[in-house]
Write a structure and sequence with these properties.
The structure is a single chain. The chain is of the alpha/beta class and 245 residues long. It contains ten helices and seven strands. It starts with 5 loop residues before the first helix and ends in a 7-residue tail after the last helix. Bound molecules: guanosine-5'-triphosphate. Guanosine-5'-triphosphate (GTP) binds next to α3. Guanosine-5'-triphosphate binds next to α3. Its cofactor is Mg(2+).
């Protein structure tokens, strides 16, 4: 199977080493040189088995593109998009992770800095659905307690190949207290809805920080660095939606 562009991997690797050398990628330095283009910066993560369509979901959302070939992600990659959600200009940094087992050590390092996670399975693959239990258990283990999650059954355009009934998706989502969407990156069904809903959930979960930010003179709220701050404090202390496609 071909692999995704090595440059992305190098950038991601560089970002990884830099991030872990400094504790966090300091987007504030970079962004302070720009005019205010958003109110809040936050980080989302997309998880699920190889081939369920994580990269396609992301490409559809950020660039409105769809690639019919499967080019496996190596490690991690990310894309950015600015959204208007509930009157707030939100810059989302979305991390696309490799579904292949051999990259799990790398990708797990990204869980703890995510504010929102999309767990993806493929409605034409029962095994990808069963593996959601494993992905969800990894999230419980490695992501922050406050992380917001949604469940996505992708490839809803492939109705004739369906192996996972929509009710099963709904049921599993309810069990985990998540909202559920069936999507199609191919036909652009429910893509914006899923990402925007997750962003809303993150903003709601961080209402306290949002209220403090709105009453302050700060130019923007960088939740990714709030998380870095939380990490530091921790270490100091120790030291349903239906698809119409
Ligand atoms: N029919 C259909 N095919 C899709 C859809 N989304 C993705 N695919 C196809 O599924 C295959 C895998 O998509 P990717 O986005 O590369 O999968 P991935 O989850 O990122 O895979 P890894 O990088 O290996 O973890 C590709 O051939 C896509 O064209 C969809 O909504 N419908």
């Amino acid at each position: 199977m071909p692999t995704r562009n090595a440059t992305n991997f190098l950038i991601s690797s560089y970002a990884t080493s830099l991030e872990y050398a400094t504790g966090i990628l300091d987007f504030r330095v970079f962004l302070s040189t720009m005019a205010k283009q958003y109110d809040v910066l936050l980080r989302l993560l997309v998880l699920g088995d190889s081939g369920v369509g994580k990269t396609c979901l992301l490409c559809r959302f950020t660039d409105n593109e769809f690639n019919s070939s499967h080019i496996s992600t190596i490690g991690v990659d990310f894309k950015m998009k600015t959204l208007q959600v509930d009157g707030i200009k939100v810059r989302v940094q979305i991390w696309d992770t490799a579904g292949q087992e051999r990259y799990q050590t790398i990708t797990k390092q990204y869980y703890r800095r995510a504010q929102g996670i999309i767990l993806v399975y493929d409605i034409t693959s029962s095994s990808s659905f069963q593996h959601i239990l494993k992905w969800a258990s990894d999230v419980d283990e490695f992501a922050p307690d406050k992380v917001q999650r949604i469940l996505v059954g992708n490839k809803a355009d492939e109705e004739q190949m369906r192996k996972v009934p929509k009710e099963q998706g709904n049921k599993l989502a309810k069990t985990y207290g998540m909202e559920f969407f069936e999507t199609s990156a191919c036909t652009n069904c429910n893509i914006n809805e899923s990402f925007i809903r997750l962003t809303q959930l993150v903003l709601q979960a961080h209402k306290k920080e949002m209220d403090a930010f709105q009453g302050s003179t700060n130019k923007y709220l960088d939740m990714t660095s709030l998380w870095g701050e939380q990490d530091k404090q921790d270490s100091d202390a120790n030291s349903q939606k239906s698809c119409t496609c």
